[in-house]
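User: For a benchmark we're assembling, each entry needs the component sequences followed by a predicted structure for the full assembly. Here are entry 17's components. Please fill in the structure.
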Amino acid sequence: MHEPGDASVIAPDLMRDERTSALADAWRSLLRNKLALFGAVILAAVVAMAVFSPWIAPYDPSLQIPWEGRRQPLTLFDSGRFVLLGTDQLGRDLLSRIVYASRVTLVVSFTAVAVSGLIGLIIGVIAGYLGSWVDAVCMRLVDIFLAFPFELLALSIVAVTGPSLSVVVVVIALRVWVVYARVVRGATLAAKEKDFVQAAVALGASELRVVLVHVLPNVVTPAIVIATLYVGRVILIESALSFLGVGVPGSTPTWGGILGDGRAYIDTAWWIAFFPGLAIMITVLGVNLVGDWVRDYLDPRIQA
Amino acid sequence: MRKLLLVLAALSLAVGGVFPQAIAAKTIKDTTITISLGSELETMDPHTSSSALATAIHRYVFDTLMHRPTGANTLVPWAAKEVIQVDPKTLEFRMREGVKFTNGEDVDAQAVRFSLMRPLQPNFKTVQGPLFRVIDRVEVVSKWVVRVYMKSPDPGLLRRLADWGQLVPPKYYSGLTPEDAAIKPIGSGPYRLARWESGVEMVFEANPNYWKPDAPKVKTVRVVPIREDGTKVAALLKKEVDLINQVPAQYIPKIESAPGTKVVAVRGTRVFHLGFTHNIDSPLKDIRVRQAIAYAIDRNVIVKNVVEGRGIVANQPLHEWTEGYDPKRTWPYDYNPEKSRQLLAAAGYPNGFDIDYLSTDGRYTKDKEVAQAIAGFLQTVGIRVRFQAVAWKRYVDIFRARNKPGTKPFIYYIGYGNGTGDSDAALSAIASCKGAWSAYCNPQIDKALDEAASTVDMKKRATIFEDITRRLANDVAQVMLWQEDSVYGMQKDIIWNVRNDDRVYAWELDRR
Amino acid sequence: MFRYIAGRCLQAVVVLVGIIAISFAILHLTGDPAALLLPESATEQDYQEIKSRMGFDRPLAEQFVQYMARAARLDFGVSYQQYRPAMTIVLERLPATFELAMVAFMIALLIALPVGILSATHRNTAVDYAAMSTALLGQSMPNFWLGLILILVFSLGLDLLPTSGRVSYGIEQRAVTGFYLFEGLFRLDWVLFADALKRVILPAVTAGLYSSARLTRLVRSSMLDVLSEDYVRTARAKGLSEGVVVNVHALKNAGIPLVTMAGIELGLLLGGTVVTETVFAWPGIGLLTIQALQNDDFPVIQAAVFLLALIFVVVNLVVDLLYAALDPRIRYA
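Assistant: Structure for entry 17:
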């Protein structure tokens, strides 16, 4: 049976080259693809911004000067403070806040992608390998999570647990794991049919060994592709959650959080909402460009 | 109590004298006024809900026995033409003979009895039970005279009857399902509900037979729900809406400078404070720490810069038109970070301490910003707060759990809106052992509150309340912060003597 | 074929039951509607009284069994706030959400089809690059941010379009149903139609942003796949004009996967307008549910979650069956 939306996946042959030459090959491919290279540069810059925030941010991002609030970009105060992107409603330097916010944004996004990948990988392999009723149960679970209106699910969960970094990661993972699960299940089914897997089973290898040694390597590639394609989506989801007021709380800002707070001032101080949105867009664009390249390079047939 | 009654009686005479029974030909302008009061009304059944919005809008369609005139702290009889305190536990209402509900039923003693007892029916789903619990029984003395017997003397009941106890026609409501009661209201008020499209608008049409000769003034009043501040203001500027409430400070200059609109502000009834979990073991138990917190906060910056002048610094939890408000009161802890650090050191925290800090997000004017600004002030003297701004629902959950064993101590930012003007209810709520918004328990304060509740002499009661708020300040039970203005934006041709209790009554609105 | 259809329907029912159970579990875990219904001055005694009056003090298992039994008859109970049936309240908001999602969907298709085809037929030209860069940007943009910028530019700045609401005052009385836009169109009431259209445009562009971008890229890649197939090359070799080749041969064959993707996109749009409705104060199901969540109005939340999930499941079911009917290569295992 063909299920729409399913990825038709053919297991890549990881043993075709030696690892070093594979990396060199990837590097050459990246250099040839100008768009992907552009994306990689953006991504590297954002990561650098997160790692070196204290050196890049001109001011303490939590320093409030209430009487210097909502000043426009390029304002020079009498005190000598110069704010490139203006100040927010409490007089904090917007640029410094955006620089620091990259930290939480990246940590949340990468963790969420990884957590959902782990869940999706496990459930996908189990469903695909064991088949029969286990498969049916897992796939219905996937359907349920696909059909649940996501924003409402997220809002309800956060309403119950209260907002925190781990809750946000879990909520995002609840949405994204299903994508992995479907693709990985498809890849597992394909791998199971392979001659060498059948042979291993016939030779009496334990099921666990078959899965670990023969199936897993064949589903890792599609999982990696999904991961790179979904980092951008996850950043967008995280910012939407922050915008709806159920994002990562606390003194450390996220881009979505600054944007959400700035919304009340959209017509009196547009920059508070505008610049964090721009940061999100540029970052996601970079990630997506790299993601497209990774997909094309590893296996162009995978679709999220 | 007798004094209060004299005032009431005098006023009732005045009211009765000015408005003749015969309905004079009133002039109702054939125009529409559109207002937006933020979110949407939940139900038109007056006896189920207790939200502030419902309290205001239900009065368009339903009359109450009592009424609080604009700017006053006295009550006047309203649907009743006269009220008499027979004894401390008995009130007698004399109704206006001949006044009818819009379906033709009489607004008589029977209707009063039905309406006051309706929220008390055991199977009736309502949150109004607490408002009327004190009522023992309601007796129909004659067709137009009715008596309310209380289980114990409760001076607050009359006050509540100016907001609740809306009169409904008994025959119509006896046969109504709860679903229909929620959307098909019939009352004796100045307007009737002509149309209600959920999420879009409520349209009220004037009741031409309303007993009050000078009300309503305009034929149609529309209420549209607009929750977004920016959207609300844009709608006003584009003349899609004639009146909006709770205008955010950043929009005030815009509305003032636009050619067709104006801003009208009055002192509001919501007072904000910083509270402490006094019941949990923490540095907050030490009065020097609480004083240090009070000294650390520059309340003028909050009022001037953070809420942009949309209020005043508050020195006491009570507002201007409540009993026990002391106009000469000062706040003992003027901004002094140096002194704050000294007190912290004296209390044994020279390097400060860590504490949870809770604030609402989106419930009050700039709540998150104000709370964050306070966090900044506390940070400067070395108190490191773990700041959490949460939705109201979550805030309520956390706050309700404050007495559970193992709860971590916290500081909280909250505002108490006292629209009914009941000092007893306000102080009990925020500073008594059983108060819903109180984390402070002081038997002496509770005793004083009990004493006030049973004191009939108004002057003496006021003195007790004054004394309570002074003691709360001395003990730094809370840090009083600021009192919010009620800011309205209107088209310039709208005539309205703005009320200071956040209630927008449609029948008072007029257009030039 | 029949077994396939029956099986898919059964799956859909299982999914819906699962969603009802999960939403009940999440909400009743620690939610406390009683506390939120109380006036500010309420005491602990009042709180307990309200709890028992509203039935919140009964055991959770009992509440759950009753709830599932009623949900089976599509009865989600009476709203704690409005005292009316929750499903009625939610259904009143359906037209708003439906029109928003449909207009967003149409905008997405109107952009995706021509731009995608143009990109594919002019592969690696400036047109293609421009179209694909725009699509990439569209996929990278937070849609609520776009919504805010649209408001800033078109409503506050240029004063061309309203910031919120579905129709102007007085206009809504022309409509019998809540579907202002569609009713205006079908009854040829241009005043109603124009007014509703003016107000739906910004929210629809915002809601449809991501779908437009994704569908554009999809149309392009499907077309590229098909254009390289043998029969297209044959058609070209036969000397048929490029227009006929593209529009008749290629599009027909690229159509099947596109119908599927478009259907999935529509399902996502119908259930995913919460953020857009928040930005534009659009009185749909999403906005209603956010308010219900703030008040712990469980019946309304559950009815809304169920309805949105039902729409999603039905749309997907229809897409699957359509796909099965269109593509003769599918076996019904």
